[in-house]
Amino acid sequence: MKYIEKLQYITSDTPHLTHIEQVQLACEAGAKWIQYRCLSKTDDELLIDINAVAEICDDWGTTLIVTDHIHLNGQADIQGFHIEDMNADFITLRQMVGHDVTLGGSSNTIDNLIRLAKEGVDYASFGPFSITKARLDNYPVLGIGKYQEAIQKLKSLDINLPVLAVGGVKIYDIEALMQTGIYGIAVSGAINFADDFIEAYQDFYDAVKL
């Protein structure tokens, strides 16, 4: 089993903080897992950003995961990729990157969670939990009940897959979410747009780790 952090921080295209600034703040707050999610840059711009981000992560001992852009594998110090395409073929992607690279996938249905597990992902995000501005996709909101149902179904099939709640998760949601048996939480907006970024990250970390 690869190391999978229980609180996964995701960068985003925000008007007030660059991705590099977000990563620096997250690492200063104690982040051990950062998902660099930038969908607005060219490959050349991405590599400049990712190399700078990778250097920060290396300094802090933080795992760096890149959203999509799997074609950049080997061009920067990236530990893994998170693929948001819910129809992605992870058997083929695993063959592309090898077994040392961490692969995560997005899912919105229990059936897709099961497929991801069978295709060998190292972890899966499951969402959106509630309304979120981070993504424009029109996937249905899941709510607490769907997480309970998903974890029970995976257990009944003897599937040991780290599942993380994602999409509109607020600090006050975490206790109920963790009680469903999910592995952890992936968060972006609730930290990026908080009055105090570092305090918000640490509050999330404490809530997830309790």
Automatic annotation (TrEMBL):
The keyword Zinc does not apply. The keyword Coiled coil does not apply. Pathway: Cofactor biosynthesis; thiamine diphosphate biosynthesis. InterPro entries: Aldolase_TIM, ThiamineP_synth_sf, ThiamineP_synth_TenI. It holds the Pfam family TMP-TENI. Residues 10-191 form the Thiamine phosphate synthase/TenI domain. Keywords: Thiamine biosynthesis. GO terms for biological process: thiamine biosynthetic process. GO terms for cellular component: cytoplasm. One of its GO terms (molecular function) is thiamine-phosphate diphosphorylase activity. PANTHER family: THIAMINE-PHOSPHATE PYROPHOSPHORYLASE, THIAMINE-PHOSPHATE SYNTHASE. This is Thiamine phosphate synthase. It comes from Pedobacter chinensis. The lineage of its organism: Bacteria, Pseudomonadati, Bacteroidota, Sphingobacteriia, Sphingobacteriales.
